[in-house]
Write a structure and sequence with these properties.
It is a single chain. The protein is an alpha/beta fold. It has a single domain (6-126), classed as 3-Layer(aba) Sandwich (Rossmann fold). The protein has helices at 14-26, 37-42, 64-76, 89-97, 110-126; strands at 6-10, 30-34, 50-55, 80-84, 102-105. Strands 2-1-3-4-5 form a 5-stranded parallel beta sheet, with helices on both faces. The longest helix is centred in the last third of the chain and has 17 residues, at 110-126.
Length: 127
């Protein structure tokens, strides 16, 4: 899998975070979870290079797109996967234009999630 197998999971739903954490950990990824974009930003810039898997809509005034636009892409250049239950064509286009690596519509299967994360991590390792 390469050197960078760290995945930052940001979702306000505790059950979703836990399920993704277990699934990705079982696949050999190192996972750090956050309940909101605010929590992610409060933690400071992470020390390890990784992939970000974030919900689009979260409480606290900051969204997955804020993570994508404000910190991750400009400051770190990491791949960001947006996931949402409120998938619209406009949301998909906005995420794509903002530089999202991938876009997953909830509910998604474990294979789709693992494939998207593997592709994102491989892009980091190729860089």
């Amino acid at each position: 899998m390469g050197n960078h197998n760290l995945v930052y999971v940001i979702d306000d739903d505790e059950l979703v975070r836990g399920a993704i954490d277990m699934l990705l950990t079982d696949e050999g990824f190192v996972v750090e979870t956050y309940a909101s974009a605010v929590d992610f930003f409060r933690a400071g810039l992470p020390s390890g290079k990784g992939c970000v898997l974030t919900d689009l809509q979260m409480p606290g005034g900051l969204t997955g797109l804020d993570i994508l636009r404000k910190i991750v892409k400009p400051a770190l250049g990491w791949p960001v996967i947006i996931m949402t239950a409120a998938a619209t064509e406009k949301a998909r286009e906005t995420a794509s234009r903002s530089g999202a690596f991938d876009f997953l519509e909830k509910p998604f299967g474990s294979e789709a999630l693992i494939g998207a994360v593997r592709n994102a991590v491989e892009s980091l390792n190729a860089a």
